[in-house]
Every structure is written in structure tokens, then in C-alpha cells.
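Listing S7. Sequence submitted for prediction.
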Amino acid sequence: MIKRFLYKSFSVLLALLVLFSTVSFTIEKHFCGDVLIDVAVFTEAQKCVMEAFEKEQEAITKKTCCKDEVKLVKGQDELKVSTFDDLTLLQQLFITTFTYTFINLFEGLETHIIPHKDYSPPNLVVDIQVLDQVFII
């Protein structure tokens, strides 16, 4: 039960790791002057109210106060898929021996081992302690 749960949870964890390492996304920020107005991930940031007035100001001064900052977080676009045959002979030998010993490491013993199960004690002819009168006090 626990082994199955761990197996499934590690599988999901590794799948999510591959997914998040290959996803690319953009973070867009809109500043009006030095004030941050909006931050958006995957979409375009909302413009401020000053954007309409900025066009009139830009026509007069040729300078704008609003600016957009776009940051692209690029994920991994190539995944290297390698097979067991791509490894060197020494690496293949190490992996196979490690796997074999690791699997056989956890084989359990029988549930209840009785080492003297088939041993029958000798027949008692004479009680030697009484015969020699040796007693533990």
C-alpha cells in the first residue's frame, strides 16, 4: 500500500518537474512614471488612465512617462532522450549490478524460523544432578 502510494507520488512529482522545466512564459509590467501600475503573467498588462493623456503629451514634448517592461522566462526547449544502449559498457555493468543487488536486498526471510525444529533431545536415563548431588543454590 505504502509502496504503491510512494511510486505514484514520485511519478507525479517527476512529471510536474518535467512540465515546469519546459514551460515558457512572459511577465509584463506597466509603469507610469516610477509607479508600478499592473503586473500580468501570460497576458498583456492593463494600461493606466494616463495613457490617453500621454499621446497628447507625446505630441508636444516627444517624451512619454509610461513604459512597459516585458520579461521572458524561457523554459528548456530540447530534452535529451537517452537509452540504455547509449551508455558505456562500464556504466551499463554498474547499473545492472546495482539494480540487481538493490532488488534482492529487500527479500524477506520466512516469517518464523525455528532452527531446532527437527531436533529431538536424548532420552533421560538418570538425573545426573541428583546422582552427583550438585545443586545450584
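Caption to Listing S7: primary sequence and predicted C-alpha cells for the chain studied. The first strand starts at residue 25 and ends at 32. Residues 83 and 92 are 11 Å apart (CA to CA).
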